[in-house]
Design brief:
Blueprint lengths: L10 H11 L4 E5 L1 H7 L4 E4 H17 L7 E5 L4 H12 L3 E4 L6 H11 L3 E4 L1 H13 L6 E2 L23 E6 L9 E5 H12 L13 E4 L6 H14 L2 E4 L8 H8 L3 E5 L1 H7 L14 E5 L3 H11 L3 E5 L10 E2 L19 E6 L12 E7 L11 E2 L3 H7 L5 E9 L5 E6 L3 E4 L2 E4 H9 L4 E11 L3 E10 L6 H16 L10 E4 L13 H11 L5 E3 L10
Parallel strand pairs: 3-4, 3-5, 5-6, 9-10, 9-11, 11-12, 12-13, 23-24
Antiparallel strand pairs: 1-2, 7-8, 8-17, 13-14, 15-16, 16-18, 18-19, 20-21, 22-23, 24-25
Helix pairs in contact: 1-4, 1-8, 3-4, 5-6, 7-8
């Protein structure tokens, strides 16, 4: 069911519809902790107040000539300014390019040049570096603060394609865990479908019009917060509370202060929260469900039992949006099995082997998805910017190739295994890096871990675990002893061939801004570590157990 009003199908139109229905209800809530981190005011902003601020920005941008065909970079962190500027520009047909604040010079240069953004709106402390990055590649990029007047547009806005045209709403860059980020061109329909899908999911994720309060610590420059959290809030007329980031020690205080009925999470969050001592206040909150992905299957049930609400696992990608989103929002959810539900009627799915043939039930294979109906790409990303070859390769055979390895059980429910590129092939056996990481993280001596392959002349690949220890081993003997302990821990929980053949002790892991492992950088780390003095060869410990 569509919640769009008559008129243009834009995110701004969706906001205006909510503002008409719920003018005096809160739209945004800034908690004191986030306000202090950003140096902004705490408190709530109603839909009517936000509408007035957005209209003032829209008028100013329009007077300066900004509109359709222009791209505007936003380096505004998780501040309300991000949403206000996005909606103002969206009303004019301009596209926004959210900028990850963790990017540095070379990465900024690439994004500025690749996107050909015409303007950037940034927090004042970051303006100079963006201008310098543009200058380094021979571009002049005006950079303004969120409260500054915009300069005149350097070129006329292109003709508005109209409500049925391919209007770009945003250009989101993938995290680049395995290579240079790709720019995903996303339309207004992409965003609106995310809001409609989430609002209509029902089951454990039932949402009430005008009543929900949603809390997310996830970054607005990523699809989850920008498309799911924001647009569903507009769709149902809810209140959105965006934290500057996830703070484990103060998380539950934020949950209570925000009066959240829904929280959004990533897999690392439940693990951190479960590490805190149990408290009588663990259930003193208003949360009905958590929406996210990647919870450790061993912690899923214990988390729900302790904190009193379900963590509803879902699957989607920046490229798919809600057009192929899948969610385990109804029972049985098969908690503790990495189950993310079964496809809805609007999504078609195949699971295939490497040769393209259909995988059998309970057999791992790559997940291929498309929209059911005449247009397989409806609601997906429009294309990778300036990379038609990559776009067509992703859609080979008329199906979007996700790169995720999953299993379908006998009932048709899907279970996540790992990213295809993270699967280690050892002596004919497929090994999920995520599975080995999950087991190692259960050991109290491990503060962080990432698993990757290294070439083996006999077995093809061997498993390498890069471990950040809670207490750094003092010498070679201590490293060897701890490595042996960790391998023994794996051997007691996993098939022998999945245990690490090398354990490399490192000071830090290469992570993205959302705490995901940068797999490309990890391969470089592994190549440098294997054979070094901080790496322990544990291959001799990997022995098949007696039947």
């Amino acid at each position: 069911m569509s919640h769009s009003p008559a008129g243009p199908r834009t995110v701004q139109a969706r906001f205006l519809a909510a503002a008409e229905r719920f003018p005096e209800r809160p739209f945004l809530n800034v908690l004191p902790e986030t306000a202090a981190a950003y140096g902004i005011a705490a408190g709530e902003t109603t839909y009517a107040e936000a509408r007035a601020r957005i209209e003032a920005l829209r008028a100013a941008y329009a007077a300066a000539g900004w509109g359709g065909g222009h791209r505007v970079g936003l380096l505004l962190l998780n501040r309300p300014d991000f949403l206000l500027h996005w909606l103002a520009l969206n009303a004019l047909g301009a596209s926004v390019v959210p900028i990850n604040p963790d990017l540095r010079a070379a990465e900024q240069e690439y994004m500025i040049g690749h996107s050909e953004m015409d303007l950037a709106v940034a927090v004042p402390a970051r303006a100079a570096e963006l201008a310098a990055a543009a200058a380094a590649i021979g571009r002049t990029l005006p950079v303004i603060g969120p409260d500054d007047a915009s300069p005149p547009a350097p070129r006329p806005a292109r003709a508005d394609p109209g409500p049925d045209g391919p209007r770009e709403c945003a250009l989101l860059y993938t995290s680049g865990t395995t290579g240079r980020p790709k720019g995903c061109m996303l339309s207004n329909d992409y965003y609106l479908l995310c809001g409609d899908w989430y609002a209509g999911t029902g089951g454990l994720c039932r949402l009430e019009q005008g009543a929900e309060r949603m809390l997310t610590p996830l970054p607005l420059f990523h699809m989850n917060a920008m498309a799911c959290s924001v647009v569903v809030t507009l769709t149902i007329g809810g209140c959105l509370c965006v934290l500057d980031r996830f703070h484990p020690k103060t998380w539950w205080a934020s949950v209570r202060a925000s009066q959240a009925t829904v929280i959004h999470y990533l897999g690392v969050m439940p693990a951190m929260l479960m590490g805190a001592p149990e408290s009588p206040a663990d259930r003193e909150h208003s949360v009905r469900f958590g929406f996210g992905a990647g919870v450790d299957k061993r912690l899923h049930a214990p988390f729900e039992a302790r904190f009193g609400f379900p963590l509803v696992e879902a699957w989607a990608m920046t490229e798919t949006g809600a057009a192929a989103a899948i969610i385990a929002s109804v029972e049985p959810r098969k908690v503790g099995t990495s189950c993310f539900g079964r496809p809805g009627t609007g999504t078609a799915v195949r699971i295939v082997r490497d040769d393209g043939s259909a995988a059998a039930p309970d057999e791992p294979g790559e997940l291929l998805v498309r929209r059911a109906g005449p247009d397989p790409r409806a609601g997906f990303f429009s294309a990778y910017l300036k990379d038609e070859a990559a776009t067509e390769a992703a859609w080979a055979g008329g199906w979007f190739h996700t790169g995720d390895v999953v299993v379908a059980d006998a009932e048709g429910d899907l279970h996540f295994v790992d990213r295809k590129k993270n699967v280690i092939r050892r002596s004919g056996e497929n090994i999920s890096a995520v599975e080995v990481e999950s087991v190692l993280m259960q050991h109290p001596a491990v503060a962080g871990v990432a698993v990757a392959p290294t070439p083996d002349p006999v077995r093809g690949d061997e498993v390498v675990a890069c471990v950040v220890a809670r207490e750094t081993p003092a010498d070679a003997a201590a490293r060897a002893a701890l490595a042996e302990t960790l391998v023994a821990h794996c051997l007691s929980r996993l098939a022998y061939y999945k245990a690490p053949g090398f354990v490399a002790f490192v000071d830090a892991l290469p992570l993205t801004s959302t705490e995901k492992i940068q797999r490309g950088a990890l391969r470089d780390l592994v190549a440098a570590a294997v054979g070094g003095e901080a790496c322990v060869d544990t291959r001799a410990l990997k022995k098949r157990q007696a039947a």
